[in-house]
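Look over this today:
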Amino acid sequence: VIGMVRDGGLLAVHVLFVRGGLLIGRKEFFWNNVRQQSDHECLRSIIEQFYAMDLVPPKEVLLPFHLEEQAVIISWLSQRKGEAVRVTVPRRGGKVQLLELARENAAVRLQEHVRRKASNADVLTAVLTELGLDTLPTRMVGVDISNIQGAQAVGSVVVFENGTSKNSEYRRFKIKAVDGPNDFAMIGEVMQRFGTRICNGEVPRPDLILVDGGRGQLSSAQASLAKLGLDEIEIIGLAKAHGEKFERVFIGETSEAIPLDPHSQATHLLQRVRDEAHRFALTYHRKLRGNEMLGSRLDEIVGIGKARKQALLKQIGSIDRIRQATAEELQRVPGITIKMARVIQSALGRD
């Protein structure tokens, strides 16, 4: 059941999934820059993009109005499903109520989306003013690293657009070129690798980069960007002073940090970006440490040599998946008996 509502160039879509008269799920999304598209073009694009993925079309799709070239859409959906699909525009009864529910939900979500964007615009303006930036930081990137004395060192890059996190654009990096505990060099490596992606057009250019750390981390990040010709991108360092609770920000070439108002919405947004980068890096670091520990336990099992370990990894995929595998799944690996499978489970502490 597809409901859609427009406001200028913004389109809100709310899709209800109904089976046996019961609502079993829903999905919503927003499209920008659709001012030049007709309602028919928008609805057709929704259907085509929604079901162009792995999602199998249902037996019936309810639309708010008839589509131009509706027969073509029906044929395409039926081909994807492997059987006939009905595309209908109900005029009465419960199906009309479902369409109205989808449209009302889309309208409510559109209003919330517009209000949130307006509120976020005010916060971004505050960041612009308080940091003295040249460009509104519509697209912000947070950068952090995580390691223990240089071991299993990783870096993270998180993305916020219009004040909202974009998890699909998060990136994480294993530190490759730095040996030992050198946070400055690690930040430099992450910025060099992320900056290369910017230069190659793989990711959009951010308006502001926020590094978790002080002058040292910021200088290292700036040096990496400068080598790539990206030194015009605004970049700051955010850190707390030792023994103090409030945040300080490092900007440009000045060695002095600027204290931030702890009650400012701009400060809260910068903290969210920094904290999210820290969380994402720490989660990845802990995962690698856990896999390393499990791998060591696997090496200690009598009878599990290098060949059997490689066979396990090749067929099951990772140390963590080996830990979660059943004895029967482990036994399917060449060279692993049922007795050995149970020993592996015991050694790795399978959940």
